[in-house]
Design brief:
- By secondary structure, the protein is an alpha/beta fold.
- It contains 16 helices and seven strands.
- It has two domains: 2-71, Transferase, Pyrimidine Nucleoside Phosphorylase, Chain A, domain 3 (Up-down Bundle); 85-338, Nucleoside phosphorylase/phosphoribosyltransferase catalytic domain (Pyrimidine Nucleoside Phosphorylase, Chain A, domain 2), CATH 3.40.1030.
- The chain has helices at 2-13, 24-35, 41-54, 58-71, 101-110, 131-137, 147-157, 164-167, 169-172, 176-181, 186-193, 210-223, 282-293, 301-315, 321-333, 336-356, and strands at residues 85-88, 115-119, 159-163, 202-206, 228-232, 247-252, 260-265.
- The protein has a seven-stranded mixed beta sheet with strand order 3-2-1-4-5-6-7.
- A hairpin with a 7-residue loop joins strand 6 (247-252) and strand 7 (260-265).
- The chain is globular.
- Residues 6-70 form the Glycosyl transferase family 3 N-terminal domain.
- It holds the Pfam family Glycos_trans_3N.
Length: 357
């Protein structure tokens, strides 16, 4: 097997003039062999760094996603069959600015918008606070669920979380390489647009560099040309839109010749400009998040309304951004978001206890 992998490695790992791109099939094959541990450790590390230096093509990324789809766990449509948002948020987490995303997800959940997430534990190269830990800090621990229970939670609450160490250990097995090579490999790009959901979904991904956003679009054209997408040049590469400056967002627009358009979200146009709150300690962060959920004053409240309003509008809950902001604010102030969190917590407990007896 490793001699077969060596041929693929030679293609991406040759010099400036002799390197070749992999076909979609070859990229799928190489990724499958890495996930299954059929390539040696030396080969996997070499492939990751060579691929990073060469730069990944849309065909290669499509092939890598094909391999993930084949080997990963899945979440299936709930009885309501509503189209979920699938969020791609960097697995290596946040280290400078306070994350808003779980608050956005709870606001969406209140409005009946399903959301699917995925991620693991604290991860190189950034070792920021990962998504799973944010939810745990809010009293919702998705990491304890078996994959069947993830599906049950999704069916009952519209929230789904694929926790890679438990649900997709093959992918988690590639994590140590990030530390050893000291760089994010192309798999870190794949994670932003990978979806464990089987069915029609709306993909939301964060990005930092403009070429990444073009790569996302080209890859989707090859794999899922009809799905809706929202690609956000968000805080630290996340899906969180900024209060401190304009955020650029690429959204799918099937009726245009390009198939997409750029939005520029200016907080000052909506009287929302402010500071992006720094990430100080996790205990302070959880207190600030709790206050938002409980409808109290919080340094994160404005950012939660700003983000919640945008995604409510983007999903089609309301006709324009301004009414999205109003709905988000009302859901927080009326106590509905607090109620929603309590419901999700009760459902989690029920699923865990029910399956233990």
């Amino acid at each position: 097997m490793s001699s077969q992998f060596r041929e693929l490695l030679k293609k991406v790992g040759s010099g400036q003039h002799t390197k070749e791109n992999l076909t979609r099939t070859e990229a799928a094959q190489a990724t499958g062999m890495m996930l299954m541990g059929e390539a040696t450790a030396a080969q996997i590390g070499a492939f990751m760094i060579a691929h990073r230096i060469k730069r990944i093509t849309p065909e290669e990324l499509a092939g890598m996603l094909d391999a993930y789809d084949e080997l990963s766990p899945h979440i299936y449509p709930s009885p309501e069959e509503k189209t979920p948002f699938v969020f791609g948020i960097p697995y290596d987490g946040r280290s400078r600015t306070a994350p808003i995303f779980p608050l956005t997800a709870l606001i969406l959940s209140c409005a009946g918008v399903p959301a699917i997430m995925h991620g693991g534990d604290s991860m190189p190269t950034k070792y920021g606070i990962p998504l799973i830990e944010l939810w745990q800090g809010l009293g919702l621990d998705f990491s304890v669920l078996a994959i069947e229970q993830v599906q049950e939670l999704y069916n009952r609450t519209g929230l789904g979380f694929i926790y890679t160490p438990r649900h997709f250990p093959l992918a988690d097995g590639l994590t140590p390489y990030r530390d050893q090579i000291g760089k994010r490999p192309p798999i870190a790009t794949l994670e932003l647009i990978w979806s464990p959901y089987v069915g029609n979904f709306h993909l939301v991904s964060g990005y930092v560099h403009p070429p990444t956003e073009a790569l996302f679009r080209e890859t989707l054209k090859l794999r899922k040309p009809t799905i809706a997408f929202t690609f956000v040049k968000g805080l630290e590469g996340s899906c969180d839109i900024r209060l401190s400056q304009t955020t650029i967002v690429a959204i799918s627009q099937p009726q245009t010749s390009e198939g997409f358009e750029y939005l520029k979200l200016h907080p000052q146009d909506y009287g929302m400009e402010g500071k992006d709150h720094p990430l100080d300690s996790t205990s302070d962060l959880f207190l600030a998040m709790d206050a938002v959920i409980e409808g109290k004053a919080s340094p994160l409240k404005q950012a939660s309304i700003w983000n919640g309003g945008f995604y409510l509008w983007r999903y089609g809950i309301c006709p324009d951004f301004s009414s999205g902001l109003e709905i988000a604010e009302n859901l927080l102030n009326s106590g509905k978001v607090a109620q929603k969190r309590a419901e999700i917590r009760a459902t989690l407990d029920d699923i865990i206890n029910h399956n233990h007896h």
